[in-house]
Amino acid sequence: MRIPSARGRFSGSLFELLRRPPEEETTGTFSLVEQLVDQAMDHHEILVDEDLQLALFCLYELHYGGLEGANERWEWNPGLIAARQKIEAVFEEALRGAVVLPSDRPENSDSVAEALFGLTAADNGPSMSRYVAKSATVEQVREFVVHRSIYQLKEADPHTWAIPRLTGRAKAALVEIQADEYGGGRQERMHSALFARTMRVLGLHDSYGAYVDVVPALTLASTNMMSMFGLNRRLRGAIVGHLAAYEMTSSQPNRLYGNGLRRLGFSQDATWYFDEHVEADAVHEQIAGRDLAGGLFETEPHLLEDIYFGATAALALETMSTARIMAAWEAGKSSLLVPLPSSS
Fold first, then answer.
1. What is the pLDDT of residue 104?
2. 91 and 132: one domain?
3. Nearest to 116 by CA among 329, 333, 292
4. 27 and 92 share a domain?
5. By residue range, what is the domain housing residue 58?
6. Which uninterrupted H or E stretch holds 231?
7. What's the pLDDT at 28?
8. How many helices (H) and strands (E) does the chain have?
9. What is the DSSP string of 104-163?
């Protein structure tokens, strides 16, 4: 992914640093970076902080596909890791403060799954899928797809970090889910590849990170949350809970997204991604609830609160992001920082 445009002093300093060789003397730059992080923590709401969320997204990207022009040795540079940990500490605190965990104390894997199904069923936030199915214009659907592309073009990767952190039943369940996400060994059926096909049909660029410059902080925060959960072993319960909630809230919405594209006259090339998830995620939700989350609970019951945390945080950020996007549309505005060129 190319290094995006800076959104403030911190991301600007970070990007300047990444364009330099790691061997150069960087003490002064690291001091500035740490100072800027501390200042930002004191004065901003981190979930909607454009500067910090963009910087955090790029710090995580060093662990995925890397950044164009950034030496790969930056990935484990102690100064960058320290800066990332400072941001993560406040980010995690903000997420924990934004959710209420269930009080249920399940006895086995089945009751964990039932608690998670209850959480997702009780979610009463605005429905993007119903809006797309019934009312969205082509331009609004294109914006929706741009927001989703930030994660969907690397779909499954943040959750895959959890595989070596799990054992037994939970590990086997996660591998089963991820194998489907990666197309069962067929490159053209990888879910990220199917989403790229949808983007091309909609006249959008399908290269990873092409729209990072135009999506707001909340969109970046949703993916940053997954990366934080997946990359930190201590948060393995949270990434499991996140995936369980993600799968449990996927099947029916994807049916509606596909219907919305068909309403607008798009072909199977555009709907394949969404149609694929209708059947797959109806199966995945049971595996994720009972075998993945339930299996982890039975192996490590002390992780129950983090399983709940991951699930509730996933629902909370989705609600916040959807509300922001739909409020912009209701006001007759673009939900992106920079509107897309009109489609033909």
1. 80
2. no
3. 292
4. yes
5. 9-97
6. helix 217-231
7. 57
8. 16, 0
9. ---SSHHHHHHHHHHHHHH--S--HHHHHHHT--HHHHHHHHHHHHHHHTTTTHHHHTTG
Q: Which residue has the tokens 């075998």?
A: 291
Count of domains observed in the chain = 2
Q: Is the predicted pLDDT of residue 38 greater than 80, yes or no?
A: no
H helix intervals, the chain: 9-18, 27-43, 50-61, 78-97, 109-122, 128-134, 138-152, 157-160, 168-181, 191-201, 217-231, 236-248, 251-263, 268-286, 294-299, 304-330
CA dihedral over 295, 296, 299, 305, signed as positive or negative:
negative
Determine the Cα–Cα distance for residues 259 and 289; give it in Å rounded to an integer: 27
Pick from 92, 39, 33: nearest CA to 59: 33
H-run or E-run covering 323: helix 304-330
Q: How far apart are CA 112 and CA 301, in angstroms?
A: 10
Task: Please state whether the predicted TM-score (pTM) of the whole model is above 0.85.
Answer: yes
Cβ neighbours of 322 (radius 10 Å) = 20
Among residues 46, 77, 97, the one where a domain terminates is 97
CB 198 within 8 A of CB 258: no
Question: Tokens in use for 315?
Answer: 């629902």
Residues 206 and 314 in one domain: yes
In terms of pLDDT, which residue wins out, 68 or 122?
68
122 residue type, one letter? A
Mean pLDDT is lowest, of 26-30, 104-108, 175-179, 239-243, for 26-30
CA distance readout (Å), 227 to 28, 185, 204, 310: 28, 24, 25, 12
Percent of the chain exceeding pLDDT 90 equals 82
- Could you tell me if 50 and 170 lie in one domain? no
Q: Beta-carbon neighbour count of residue 183 at 10 Å?
A: 16
Q: Residue 245 belongs to a domain with what CATH number?
A: 1.20.910.10
Alpha carbons 289 and 305: distance in angstroms, whole number = 15
How many CB atoms lie under 10 A from the CB of residue 20?
14
User: What proportions of the chain, in percent to the nearest 5, are helix, strand and coil?
Assistant: 75, 0, 25
